[in-house]
Every structure is written in C-alpha cells, then in structure tokens.
Design goal:
The protein has 13 helices and 25 strands. The protein has helices at 30-42, 60-63, 75-78, 94-107, 201-211, 235-241, 246-270, 272-286, 292-295, 314-321, 405-423, 453-456, 477-485; strands at residues 19-26, 48-51, 114-115, 118-126, 131-138, 141-152, 176-178, 193-197, 216-221, 227-230, 308-311, 324-328, 331-335, 338-341, 346-348, 351-354, 367-370, 373-374, 382-383, 387-388, 394-396, 434-436, 444-446, 464-466, 494-496.
Length: 497
C-alpha cells in the first residue's frame, strides 16, 4: 500500500494554519469510503483527506441504530464493485454493513486519512488560485482547508433531524414518542404495545423486529407501499463461492442481480397494471386473511416510489401470526393512551415510533461561492448526475433511487478518477481546472424524478437536471456505464483550462 502523501502545511486544523490537499472528500459513509479507496488506488501520489462530521465512519449505517436496521438492497449490488461482499445474508444488518465499510477503509489505506467531527460550513472557489477554500467547524471551533478538487459524498438527507410531522392531540399522549433516526439506547419495548407510524423501509423493518418481544405491534400507514420478499440468503451465491474464485463469483451474482433489478423496474414502468396485479397476487397468497386491497394497494404505480423489500417474508409472517397488525387511515387525534383514526378506530400504544421519513439536505447544507459570487443551487444544472454547472473542480455522489446506491457511486468515483488523471497528468497533459458549462437551450427538469415525500418536500432547493443526455439522469446502470464510464472528457460541456 502506498504511503499517504503528506498535506502541504501544518496538520493541526486547530492552530489557525490552512491545510492543503489535492482532493478533499466530504463524508465517510458508503460513498465517501468507496470514493477514497478508488482515488488512493488510482492516484497514490495525490494527497487526500476525508472530512466526516460525525465521530465514526459508516454514514447511514452508523447513524441508524433502531431494531433490525438493515439494507433494503441486496449486498451484491450495494457492495463495492472492487470488493466482494462475503457475508451470508443478501440483506445485511446495519452492523455488518458498517463493518464492511470499515474493513474497506482499512484495506485501502483510507482509515488514517479521515478527520472526524469536521462539519463543513462553506466552500469558496478561486479561479486565480485554482483551489477551493473550505471552512469547517471542528468540535465547534473554526478551521480551514484548501484543496484542488472537492468531492461531496455526504448523501442527500439531514443527519441531524429526521422528518417528524406534528400530529393532532399529540400533547395529551402519555406514552413514549421515538423517531428511528434518534433511537434511545435504553428504550425497552418488551411486553409493550407499539404503534409504528409509516409504511416505508424503516417501518417494515421495525415491525417484525419489535414484534419478537412486544406485546403487539401495529403498523399505522396513511397510504400503502409496494412490498416484495427476497430470500435472506442467496443460495446461488453461496454455491458459486464453492466452485469459483471469490471475485468471479461476486461479479456473476452482482450482474445477475443488476439485470434482475433493471428488468423488474423497466417492466413495472412499461406495464404498471400487470405489475400491480402480480404483486397483489403474491401478497394475497402470503396474507389470505388480510384485506390486501386496503392495506397493500398503493395509489401510485409500481416504482413511482421505491419498493420495500423484506427478507424471507418476515413482515407477512408476523402479520399472519397476529403478533403484528396493520391499520390504514388518517389520524384524527392522539389520546392519552394511543391514537384514534378518522372513522373511530382506536389503537392503544405504550410506544409510538414515528417512522415518517427523512429531511433532505443537499450537499450537506454547504454554501458555495465561485470567485466571490454565491452559488444558488436551483440555478445550476446537473451534468451526468455527478457535476454541477458553474462549480469548477467539483463532483458529488447521489446514488440510484430505483436500484442500489453504490452502483452509481462506483461509476462516479471512476469518473472523478479520470478527471483527476487529466488534471494531474504528466507530459504536459495536466490542467488546472475543469468546469461544466450549462447549455441554455436544454429544457430544465426536476433534479430527481421520484415521488418520495422527502424529495417532493425539498425539490425547489435542489439543482435542476436537463431533458436530454448528458444533463439527464437515466436511473439505468447499463446506460450509465456507457454515459459515465465510457464518456469523453473532451465533451463540449466540459471546459478545461
């Protein structure tokens, strides 16, 4: 493993000196660690640091600690392209995923490059100096870094606060409220009546997990979600590992799952009626005594929002057993002992879990400026889903909404590696900066074509995407292999200088 190039100034961020590196990666979650691993492998001579606002790496997989937290994508596609997932479970729990990220960081020499408790506040680009000046709070104290390239891998939601609507009458409720994003370590739910408000991935994970010890768990949803089950263990993968090298077996299963996901998504979008009917038939088979048309019949077409995935039909199992139940309707009011729905149904609850979603926070809430002028993100346009018009030497990672996040993250890291190769190339090939120039003829479209609540609540705060390639994100991995990995760095939208 190559030695980490030393930052080119005093390494103590608290002493007022400015520390400079070639590349600054923001975020030490799944995306940031993968990006840093890729860049340190491809460009061992460049200095690189990772700034992480929290005290530990792992991002999402360290933040969320609620019962049963796990992936809702299979690990053969959520894992990195360059590092096989060797766990037995296809849908892995949060601790296993964090360990995988931690192992990757150590294996690729990223661990020692991470600076924890570094909250990035602002980033200012100077064309004259061809560098970013990044203002940071370190344990509440100001510090400054500069870099030649800024790579934002902070995801797209607010780590500080989840989305928590105010419910009518909640002030009179005498039980315990808890949001999954801030799960108390000392919360005891054994023998308690629990209501989980929500119908997304978090809710359908919590319900079977809490039902093991609770007296009863009720999943209370305003509208249903599409739910499918996959085996917790991928027997095909386990068999392949016995006859093929680890990486070969991993790539075979990875591609099988990629193609399955794409086929499922594309067929659902092209033929929503038959897709809905197939899902309904399967759900009815799993839950013959439950009103599927009330509780599992979303008002939107398949894949207009993300499907929820359960391992080994665990949600269906606890609903069949009676350890959990499902209620669909709007809340009229909370009462001292629980919640009353419009229509009169009352549900008792000792604990109410508000699995009501996330708050979106684009690019970690950083304020950007270029040559002294503030950048308004809604006035920028996304290029290939990884750069923004008008922001030089800048890239970001936002993964797929209809597939595994890391499939896209890996492609972005490869593209950034190519950019850095041009920026730091030898034999006179090096350039100081690259910036995306927006095409005014391209019609604007919303940044994310996705109907999830956290997106719709914040869509006006986000950049735009365009109506045509390379300004439009296709949400298609095979297409993006050509559009990102196979793209020309002399694209007319990229201005090098």
């Amino acid at each position: 493993m190559a030695q980490t190039p030393a930052p080119r100034s005093t390494p103590d961020a608290h002493d007022g000196h400015v520390e400079h590196v070639d590349v600054l990666v923001l975020g030490a979650g799944l995306s940031g660690i993968g990006a840093a691993a890729r860049l340190t492998t491809d460009h061992p001579g460049l200095s690189l640091l990772v700034l992480e606002s929290r005290e530990r790496l792992g991002g999402t997989w360290d933040l969320f600690r609620y019962p049963g937290v796990r992936s809702d994508s299979d690990m053969f596609t959520l894992g990195y392209r360059f590092k096989p997932w060797l766990g037995e479970k296809a849908l892995a729990d949060g601790d296993a995923i964090r360990s995988y990220v931690e192992e990757t960081a150590a294996e690729y020499g990223v661990t020692e490059r991470i600076r924890y408790r570094h909250q990035v506040v602002s980033a200012a680009w100077s064309s004259a100096d061809a560098r970013w000046t990044v203002d940071v709070l370190v344990d509440g104290e100001p510090a400054t870094y500069t870099c030649g390239f800024l790579y934002c891998c902070s995801g797209y939601y607010d780590y500080a606060e989840g989305y928590r609507p105010t419910f009518p009458g909640e002030e009179q409720y005498e039980g315990t409220f808890v949001h999954p994003q801030h799960w108390p370590e000392d919360l005891e739910h054994a023998g308690k009546k629990v209501v989980v408000i929500g119908s997304g991935a978090t809710a359908i994970t919590l319900v079977p997990s809490m039902a093991r010890e609770a007296e009863h768990v009720t999943m209370l949803q305003r509208t249903p979600t599409y739910v499918i089950s996959i085996p917790a263990r991928d027997q095909f993968s386990l068999a392949l590992r016995k006859v093929l090298p680890e990486m070969t077996a991993y790539q075979v299963v990875r591609w099988r799952n990629v193609l399955r996901q794409m086929a499922f998504f594309n067929l659902s979008q092209a033929f929503p009626g038959p897709a809905r009917a197939i899902v309904r038939r399967y759900t009815k088979k799993q839950l013959p005594d439950i009103d599927v048309d009330t509780h599992f019949n979303p008002p939107y077409d398949p894949w207009d929002q993300r499907f929820c995935v359960v391992p080994d039909a665990d949600l269906y199992r606890v609903l069949r057993s009676g350890d959990a139940s499902i209620a669909t309707g709007s809340i009229e009011t909370f009462t001292p002992t629980g919640v009353r729905l419009v229509g009169g149904e009352e549900i008792e609850a000792d604990i109410v879990v508000t699995a009501t979603g996330l708050n979106l926070l684009a690019f970690g809430g950083i304020s950007f400026s270029v040559d002294g002028a503030d950048v308004k993100l809604p006035e920028t346009m996304s290029y290939r889903g990884l750069m923004l018009s008008g922001l030089p030497n800048f890239a970001y990672t936002i993964g797929y909404t209809n597939s595994s996040w890391t499939l896209k993250a890996d492609l972005v890291a490869e593209f950034v590696s190519r950019l850095l190769g041009r920026l730091h190339g030898g034999s006179g090939e090096g350039r100081a900066q690259v910036v995306v120039e927006r095409d005014p003829a391209v019609r604007e479209e919303p940044f994310m074509d996705f109907e999830a609540g956290y997106v719709l609540r914040s869509i006006d705060q986000l950049p735009k995407q365009g109506a045509v390639t390379p300004w439009k994100l296709k949400q298609n991995y095979v297409h993006d292999i050509r559009a990102i990995r196979g793209s020309d760095l002399d694209d007319e939208a990229l201005r090098w200088s």
